[in-house]
Amino acid sequence: MIRDLPIEALRPEILAAARRPGGVVVQSPTGSGKSTQVPQMLLDAVPQGEVWVLEPRRLAVRSLAGWVARQRSGEPGGEVGYRVRFESKVGTATRLVFLTPGTALRMLASNPTLKGVAAVCLDEFHERGADLDAFAAFALALCAGPRPDLSLWILSATIDPAELARWFARSCVPCTCLESQGRTFPVTVGHQAPLPGEAVAAQVARAVRQILSNPEGDLLVFLPGQDEIRRASTAVSEMLSRNGHSRVDLCSLHGELEPASQDEVLRPSAPGRVKVILSTNVAETSLTLPGVRHVIDSGLVRRARFDPVREINTLWTVRASSRSASQRAGRAGRVAAGSCLCLWEPGDIPPLEDPPEVERIELSGLWLQLLGLDAVPEELPWPSPPRPESVATARALLSHLGALDASGKLSALGQDLSELPVSPRCARVLWEAHRHGNLEAALHWAAEHESQGPDDARRLYQRLKERIGKSRSRETPPLGRLLLPAHSDRLATALGNGRWRLFDGRTAQLDSGLEAAPLLLALEVQETAARGTTQLRIRRSHAIQEEWLLETFPEEARFEQVLEWDPRSRRVTGREVFVLFGQELSSRPVSDDRLDRSRAEALLARRLESGDIRWKWGEEEEEWTRRVRLAAKTFPEMGISTLEGEDLELVRASLCEGCLAAPGVESREVLPLLREAVGGSHSGFVDNQFPVRLNLPNGKRARIEYRDDGLPLVQARISDLIGVKSSQVRIAQGRLSILWEILAPNHRPVQRTADLDGFWTGSYPEIRKDLARRYPKHPWP
Predict the structure, then answer these.
(1) For the chain, which domains are there?
(2) pTM, 2 dp
(3) Gap between the Cα atoms of 115 and 629, Å rounded
(4) pLDDT digits 0-9 by tens, 67-84
């Protein structure tokens, strides 16, 4: 019977390809025998070394290993064995090993070059799980480098062989493409649309009832997850009871089912009995269910995606692709004609295919595992490269956890974390517990956090306990202290009124029953949309104490005094804030007597410069500044201050000294500080050489106006200047002339000149005639 399987037509080509290194792509439809026969052909063709067969699911690994072992007159653990999470059946004679991609990746840690492995077979490659893609990339890199003798096989019913051939070619690895014809029986595809408001469970019960009206063979129902299976089981059981179907055996099939229960489901039905198998997509490929003649497809599936709530990769219910629908329908035509009832509208066409998992999930766990293998993940020949932004996010998280050094390579801590079969955050929690104590609490937390059900949690707890051993410390720090290093970016600060500010700045409410601590870790935040707005609720949390942050992050956590300008009171106020990674977590007021005075004065000085505080700057200060700047320009060799830049900053600082509020600054005299900034000797020099008043030869005094744009200006009546020569009146040790504004007796300007000598000989005679006529009582020499 085995020789009649369609894949047997390719036996000569497969055996020939198995004796050559490089890549082989086998496209073979569902039911052709590729999953059971190709591995045996490889085993028979390769005289030495192991043959690894990677299957995407544990159930398929166990089932195929048992099936193939019995075909070769043995049992798992002999020539044929398997390895899955929490379970292994291999022996010294085992050469054909079925295993999941995740298990295969972990085995690379102790065997990075796959020493002793002659061929690797990646079955159901079209599912494109992240672990499978990563292992494929790693294996291809081995083929192109240290293991040119390694044979890498790709098996699938729906892949594009040409695309995979190009993938091999990019790494310069030769590739052979083989294609087999299938042997499937016709499957009649129908649709049953849901009734208004009808739940999936009720729709499944209605579909089962329809098929059982004239059954020929068993029924296989595809549902997305265990919850849907439980609800459908209840609905179908009630329907069977109401309709008197006593010869129907209702059973469930999913990856978390105990192995013995899985084996029971896979056995043929007893004579006269009909099985209704409620299954997840574990039955979509690779499993042998010979009694199934009818399929009911809900059109839904659980797909791995990044969960921003728990910040882990988890399973989401989404629409299954058209390729999945074809695979599911094909389960009904393996041994005879069958039917497939699709639970959606005929025109509601599913998407063609799902994007590879590496494009949907958060990659920090996968990256940590690959870095632990001394690989540079970005340089591996991925079948589909992960998105750069996803890689950047993964590396940022690993750096935050301390798993990477400054150069982006794995640190010693990162190496420890990579060896634990949990997410990087959970691994850091366990590392902390191993180091500081209270390992038991951390183990229970990690097992519950990482598992989909209680059975898995118990097994993961035991495995982690065996892997980690005992804690180095007998201390029992609170669990929150152990969670902190891995979740510091999940810190939340109480704002009052039942609200907490998350580390990213958003605001969330705390679920009732959770401890309302001033600081807490928001381990799970649920985001919901209501009335056009988004609301956040903290669903799981742990209280945190400030001293834990100081202990855990001695360089990044600190108390700081923040000074602020209060525009209403026009004064400096202070807060003591607790800062972590540059983010403010908490704040409390600081009294005036505890304020940092130097910083407060500097803040006042900046407000003085911006104009928020007014200082006593009048004509006297303005004139002094002009005189000083003119002196500095006229006598550059003396180095006189120009009262600009740092010098003026010094004046403002001196003015604010001892003050906390604007009134104290605004009441102070400025001129003494300006003179102090210039210096005593230079101030005296300015007073001496750049006087405010000028003594005229007739004994009168004239005011000197110092201007920014020219010579000092003196206004004087012409009668007070009769006979005065320019050489007689100069300032600044004779370096500066005076610009004279000559006034008539009525104090109106007659002329401006810096050359009095020229004025007397040139303009004055004409002016004198006019003045003598207008002012005859004045003597006009």
Answers:
(1) 2-179 (3.40.50.300), 187-354 (3.40.50.300), 610-689 (no CATH), 693-774 (no CATH)
(2) 0.72
(3) 84
(4) 999 999 999 999 999 999
